[in-house]
């Protein structure tokens, strides 16, 4: 007899029977409002009819044709669809299965394109769990403790976390940019630095929107020093922040962009895009994997992008996100244990703090558990585990957000 490994410690006791839209129906007969969406994956909601139909149809045509052997139509179609939303000039796309693999592909590409070894990451960033991706992750020790040595050539710089620093945003940005300039003078010279890697909003690091001025400051330094600017849009991309890409809240454009999660509503696929000039610095054989760019995932990806466009889901994310954030800020006024509420679009983080301002992970954990009793599914995050995060699907309705807020307040 086998059982699931204890590393798969569940945040909720729920076993899903079926799910639709924003709702999960458990084998316990309960109906849960899902503000976890498979950690920001089921962008068009659970089992959107158009995504289901596209996947069903594709399964009957071809499931897998390894893309360096035989190309298939869905990947060509997905590439064309992505071309409509990718930042100008990023016209060459490569596919993998997960965010971590795409992060690794982007790092390999940046090193190959510049001939430089080092990568600068920012405190609180989360980029995945493979050894290389974990080496780039500073969102908590649990992601890399116990399996050192990690990948060499990674340097961490400050993230402009205004609330944590007790600063206003402009001061936090100025401080973090000064720290970066200092790092480039003392620890990794520009001529040794291949890339800056950053999320447009920290995900596992605590749901903290990256200030646009910081993104702009990174672009400026990347241009000055010939460093590749990589935006990890795995969690913040595909409409989640109320713009198609999280970085579009700033003026900065990436040299390399990474997307996964919401791109196919739950089917595993990830992509990186860069200019053809940059992408051609990687040679055939240096990137790829057996399952990358799976045909069924790609078909689901095409359907997902169509649904997002047809149903105006980017705008819905903005509107419902504003509603959620306003509601949470109001709830905050009634609970001194909530130290900070922040978010962007349908990414909201509620940070629990003790009276002396230190992180209160126990309360965040208890609240997350209590939301399940209220039939609302939530997750925690943050390096200290004291943030409850809400990640509704992009199709979430005004009434569902209102219900979610009521249930969340009852849990607190
Ligand atoms: N990058 C970011 C910003 C993420 O949020 C995640 C996953 O949560 C990853 C990378 C890794 O993606 P995956 O879990 O698909 O490997």
Automatic annotation (TrEMBL):
State the CDD domains in the record.
Answer: OAT_like (cd00610)
Q: Which molecular-function annotations from GO does this UniProt entry contain?
A: transaminase activity
Q: Which domain of life is it from?
A: Bacteria
| Keyword Transferase attributed | yes
Q: Which Gene3D superfamilies match?
A: Aspartate Aminotransferase, domain 1, Type I PLP-dependent aspartate aminotransferase-like (Major domain)
Which keywords has UniProt assigned to this entry? Answer: Aminotransferase, Pyridoxal phosphate, Transferase
Q: Quick check: keyword Cytoplasm in the entry?
A: no
Co-factor(s) = pyridoxal 5'-phosphate
Task: Give the matching InterPro entries.
Answer: Aminotrans_3 (IPR005814), Aminotrans_3_PPA_site (IPR049704), Class-III_PLP-dep_AT (IPR050103), PyrdxlP-dep_Trfase (IPR015424), PyrdxlP-dep_Trfase_major (IPR015421), PyrdxlP-dep_Trfase_small (IPR015422)
State the family it belongs to: Belongs to the class-III pyridoxal-phosphate-dependent aminotransferase family.
The record's annotation in PANTHER family points to:
AMINOTRANSFERASE CLASS III, LEUCINE_METHIONINE RACEMASE
- Name of protein: Aminotransferase class III-fold pyridoxal phosphate-dependent enzyme
């Amino acid at each position: 007899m086998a059982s699931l490994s204890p590393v798969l410690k569940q945040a909720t006791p729920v076993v899903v029977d079926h799910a639709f839209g924003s709702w999960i129906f458990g084998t316990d007969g309960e109906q849960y409002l899902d503000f976890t969406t498979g950690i920001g994956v089921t962008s068009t909601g659970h089992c959107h009819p158009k995504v289901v139909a596209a996947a069903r149809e594709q399964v009957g045509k071809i499931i897998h044709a390894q893309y360096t052997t035989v190309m298939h139509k869905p990947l060509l179609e997905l590439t064309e669809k992505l071309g409509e939303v990718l930042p100008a000039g990023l016209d060459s796309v490569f596919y993998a299965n997960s965010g971590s693999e795409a992060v690794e592909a982007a790092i390999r590409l940046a090193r190959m394109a510049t001939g430089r070894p080092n990568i600068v990451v920012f405190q609180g960033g989360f980029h995945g769990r493979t050894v290389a991706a974990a080496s780039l992750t500073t969102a908590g020790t649990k992601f890399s403790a116990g399996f050192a040595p990690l990948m060499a050539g990674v340097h961490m710089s400050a993230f402009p976390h205004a609330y944590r620093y007790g600063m206003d945003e402009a001061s936090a940005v100025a401080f973090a940019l000064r720290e970066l300039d200092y790092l480039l003078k003392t620890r990794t010279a520009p001529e040794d630095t291949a890339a800056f890697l950053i999320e447009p909003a920290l995900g596992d690091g605590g749901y903290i929107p990256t200030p646009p001025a910081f993104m702009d400051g990174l672009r400026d330094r990347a241009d000055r020093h010939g460093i590749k600017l990589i935006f990890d849009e795995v969690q913040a991309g595909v409409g989640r922040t109320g713009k198609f890409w999280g970085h579009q809240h700033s003026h900065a454009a990436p040299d390399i962009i990474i997307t996964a999660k919401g791109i196919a509503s739950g089917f595993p696929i990830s992509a990186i895009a860069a200019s053809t000039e940059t992408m051609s610095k990687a040679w055939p054989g240096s990137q790829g994997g057996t399952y990358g760019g799976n045909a069924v995932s790609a078909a689901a990806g095409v359907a997902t992008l169509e649904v997002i466009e047809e149903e105006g889901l980017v705008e819905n994310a903005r509107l419902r996100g504003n509603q959620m954030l306003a509601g949470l800020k109001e709830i905050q006024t009634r609970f001194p244990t909530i130290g900070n509420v922040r978010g962007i679009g349908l990414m909201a983080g509620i940070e629990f703090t003790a009276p002396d301002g230190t992180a209160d992970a126990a309360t965040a954990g208890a609240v997350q558990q209590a939301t399940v009793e209220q039939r609302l599914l939530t997750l925690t995050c943050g390096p200290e585990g004291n943030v409850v995060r809400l990640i509704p699907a992009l199709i979430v309705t005004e009434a569902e957000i209102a219900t979610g807020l009521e249930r969340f307040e009852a849990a607190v």
